[in-house]
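From: lab user (bench 3)
To: helpdesk
Subject: output format question, protein + zinc ion

Hello, I'm new to running complex predictions and I'm not sure whether the block I got back is the full result or only part of it. Here's what I submitted:
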Amino acid sequence: MSARHVDRRDPISGEGAALFSTDALWCAEGRVVEEFVMEQPIPPYLFAFAVGELGFREAGEALFGPYEWERFDLLVLPPSFPYGGMENPRMTFLTPTLIKGDSSGAQVVAHELAHSWTGNLITNKTNEHFWLNEGFTTYAERRIVEAVQGEDRAALNIGIGWRGLNKEMERFKDNLEVTKLKTNQEGVDPDDVYSEVPYEKGFQFLWRIERQVGRPAFDEFLKKYIATFKFQSIDTDTFLDFLKANLPGIEKEVDLILWTEGTGIPPDAYEPVSSIYSKIVSMANEFKLGRMPREDEVADWQGQEWELYLENLPKSIEASQILELNSRFRLSESKDYEVKVAFLLLAIASKCKEHYVEVEKTLKAVGRKKYLVPLYSALVEGGTGKEEEKILAKRVLQRRVTLITP
Ligand SMILES: [Zn+2]
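Helpdesk reply: Thanks, we reran it on our side. This is the complete output you should expect:
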């Protein structure tokens, strides 16, 4: 626990002398004094401080208004924690898989922080309106990423989401109810229909409104929305009534009923435009024609670039191509689980058995559902010819169950 921050103020003439500083330096233009209080006495070697541009909370406040929860702490849990993060007010829980040596893990922190407004301040009334929590938070996450990490990072993040949304439409083609924003979940276990739809379609809906009214007007609307409904639970109709009252005529420009009650992806949803995003997607398409990326083309790729590339590759790659891709870029050994799992899913789809040891290790090493569900599903889905994969899945699962049941 850190010392308590009590004030941010202008320097006072003379007070710098105790720290061997002159007034000219202490009170120079642009200088501020940050005051902290530590209630317990400590020896000097235990005094430590970290300085950095943390930025996320300020970006969140610029978007939504004041942070209402005083503290924002992060607790990194053991690898068995099943989620990326959980936005418990004042103390977000995180999976250790986010610590991977680049800035992409920070996007989950941005997401959980954004829940301090959308989700924790304004909560969906029931799970049928879950998109009010997650769509807004995904929108806010990307605005924070854009402000702190730049437009290209935000576009990559949106692109990965767009890809995910399209995959969900395929997954639920026989259960279209789940592809609506406002769903009917009577008699349904919310875990059975958990998907990216409330996140990504919700994001697309809000992004569509932003494009219609322009960012300044939408930002003003967001602040008013938070201020009006904070510490309340609301449903989709309450949101839509407020939207129509505050952005008059919006229902004539954007089909609000189609977006909230319709199935599938509305025609005015939008794939992001960014040079990095388009380049990666076209490189993935070239793979279908047999072209692998060159070392220099991927030299500065971080986890998200690889994730997007792998997600856009065709699912029916030859096992020999998987082996070549890995011998060049060592993706199966990536410290970034997003990359490693995207690669292992391709390996399973291509029945590239050389990588099954790594699949087994991964299933045993982490508990994050985002990785386990697709890996287990890939192993057991598909009819004949998958016997070895099914045996592997059962064997690992049985051992995991024995470990976690007392
Ligand atoms: Zn969330």
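A quick orientation on your result: The chain has a mean pLDDT of 91. Let us know if anything else is unclear.
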